[in-house]
Design brief:
It is built from six helices and five strands; from the N terminus they run H-E-H-H-E-H-E-H-E-E-H. It is of the alpha/beta class.
């Protein structure tokens, strides 16, 4: 058995167990964990938590809503299309189930500390299985999972060496693409995002080879 096929079998088993997880006891039966189809990844993208649309109609697919469309527009500028990303990058999250609407009525509820800790075991297991060369944390919760607390403008636009339960990775954080976040609207912050995307494009070319990445838009 090749290392790639062994990893694929382990990820199949992992995702089967993850898909059946109901540890948080959400009342809504439609709230189920999101899953990733990638089976031989060397790169992990880690989001915060799925929205309602990510688990609707049996999709169970991360970044399937409005925020995902924005993120894939960003990635298109460095020549990475959605199909390639989903097949080659393992998409995880700090928590895997839709946490519900925010009590304020703006956006989704931030997962509780208990939910983050309970769900963290799944992410730890994936880090151990995949031992990613490259990590892409997206949004504040995911960034804080791997990097020391700091303002986003000190973290976005830079590559960081990080240590986690699966070993060492290069981390290139991105801001959250949700319309509820206005961080990227500032010109200086937009420039930091563009720098981060350029770093990510260069690293993906190093990981996958030039032919695996299309021309940037």
């Amino acid at each position: 058995m090749t290392p790639a096929s062994a990893l694929a079998r382990r990820l199949d088993a992992h995702c089967a167990a993850l898909g059946a997880c109901r540890q948080c006891g959400h009342d809504d039966p439609g709230v189920v964990p999101i899953l990733s189809p990638a089976r031989s990844p060397r790169v992990m993208l880690v989001g915060q938590a799925p929205g309602r649309v990510e688990t609707s109609e049996g999709e169970r697919k991360a970044f399937a809503g409005r925020a995902g469309k924005t993120m894939f527009r960003w990635l298109a500028t460095i020549g990475v299309d959605e199909a390639t990303l989903r097949s080659r990058v393992y998409i995880a999250a700090v928590t895997r189930c839709y946490p519900g609407a925010s009590p304020t009525g703006r956006g989704d509820r931030v997962p509780s500390r208990a939910e983050q800790e309970t769900c963290g075991a799944w992410l730890d297991a994936e880090l151990r299985l995949i031992r990613p060369a490259l990590l892409v944390p997206v949004g504040k919760l995911a960034i804080e999972r791997f990097l020391p607390p700091a303002p986003l403008d000190q973290l976005i636009g830079r590559a960081h060496e990080v240590v986690h339960v699966g070993g060492r990775s290069l981390a290139i954080p991105l801001p959250h693409p949700s319309g509820a976040s206005s961080w990227v609207n500032a010109p200086a912050h937009r420039a930091l995002l563009e720098r981060a995307l350029a770093l990510l494009g260069a690293e993906l070319r190093a990981q996958w080879g030039e032919r695996a990445i299309g021309r940037s838009a």
